[in-house]
Amino acid sequence: MKKIATAILALGASASLLLTGCGSSERAATSAAPQSSATSEAAVPEGMIKIGSGFEAGAKIGVSLPQKTSENWVLAEGLFTDQLKAAGFDPIVQFANGGAPEQQNQISAMVEQGVKLLVVGAVDGSQLGSQLEAAKAAGIPVIAYDRLLMNTDAVDLYMAYDNFKVGVLQGTALLEGLEKTGKASPWNIELISGSPDDANSKPFFEGAMSILQPKIDDGTLKVLSGQVTQQQTSTAGWKAAEAQKRMDAILSANYGGDVQLHGVLSPNDTLARAALTAVKSAGKPNPVITGQDSEVESVKLVFQGVQYSTIDKDTKTFVTKVVEYIGKIQKGEPVEVNDTKSYDNGVKIVPAYLLTPVIVTKDNVCTQYAADTAAGKAAAQVCGK
Ligand code: BGC
């Protein structure tokens, strides 16, 4: 039904809209591209997909970002604005600070304002269905940025750092850090996971548990709170205060007297620092704790050995890649994807271009970051470069 409705809508518009409006992104468009028909009809090479059929240079591009729950989103705002302008586009970059309803309105407004492509970092990836359908009906390609868009066919491409790999790196770092303490196992750990409405929280947690669960099962690790599922360990809205409150409660209920908390799996830096605050106020020694995002404060804590690890998912590299892809899509050129299996959003498997995250500990904190990034500047400060 939806397909028919879309097609009828598009028919009323133009041939170009019809093609993109009801077409799958994995098929080359056959006409209405701004470049020569020879190029547009060329077969799409293996490992690449063609999204839409191109649009005019200098077009408006909508970038809808979630709340500022970590520094990477704040960095992304400036980078998208600057880089899209430098590439000759007319960017509209907005945060949805008020949550999913605000993001719905924002995306609708962007479509009405005539954006030719949408980049969406969703607050809640499953709440944008009708707004994305409207974008699709208007022939607007949609890139899911960092977080997958769920339960919709109106998403052409997913671009992100490999989320499952992030979790694997965190689980591995936690174990490695515990071993390095020289204390004999079993080690007591607690688990924190991200916001349940963020599609990334599941692969982060599952990646980490692919490493930690076998060690819980064989008794090397103990979770004294008994909270071991994604649901039990989740942090609504990625809010630091939520994570801290939960850790306060866990510590007072399970870690009285001499009982030690040796390690904490934290999905990102903001929540790691919140957990460290809780541990400190419970008067307990610093645990081995993971993180993600290479936030300025955490880069310093990693250097000091207070936070065991973080993850480098450089926002500049990421946004640069997305803007490069927008340039190609504008010209009607195909783009490379490197994962066409993992990201099932409930309606379709969304072709993905994944970047590689890197674990950062005291061992590489002074060498890992590019000097012109926020993390690089923080590292330079503490490392005395
Ligand atoms: C991002 C993380 C970030 C978290 C909270 C996730 O979707 O992938 O890098 O820490 O959101 O903002």
Question: What attributes characterize this protein structure?
Answer:
385 residues; alpha/beta; 14 helices; 6-stranded parallel β-sheet; binds beta-D-glucopyranose; disordered N terminus; elongated
Ligands: beta-D-glucopyranose
N→C terminal distance: 61 Å
Instruction: State the low-pLDDT regions, or none.
Output: 1-40
> Residue share in helices?
40-55%
Give average pLDDT, whole number. Answer: 91
Question: What percent of residues are in strands?
Answer: 5-15%
Order of helices and strands: HHHEEHEHEHEEHEHEHHEHEHEHEEEH
Q: Which value, in Å, is the CA radius of gyration? A: 22 Å
Based on CA inertia axes, which overall geometry fits? Answer: elongated
Structural class: alpha/beta
Order of strands side by side in the largest beta sheet? 3-2-4-5-6-13
Protein described:
This protein has 385 residues and is of the alpha/beta class. The chain has helices at residues 2-12, 15-22, 37-41, 71-86, 100-112, 129-137, 163-180, 201-217, 230-233, 240-254, 269-281, 296-304, 315-330, 374-383; strands at residues 48-49, 60-65, 90-95, 117-120, 142-145, 157-161, 187-191, 221-222, 263-265, 288-289, 310-312, 335-336, 352-355, 358-360. The strands form 4 sheets. It has a 6-stranded parallel β-sheet, sandwiched between helices. It has a 4-stranded parallel β-sheet with strand order 8-7-9-10, with helices on both faces. Strands 1-12 form a two-stranded antiparallel sheet. Residues 1-40 have low confidence and may be disordered.
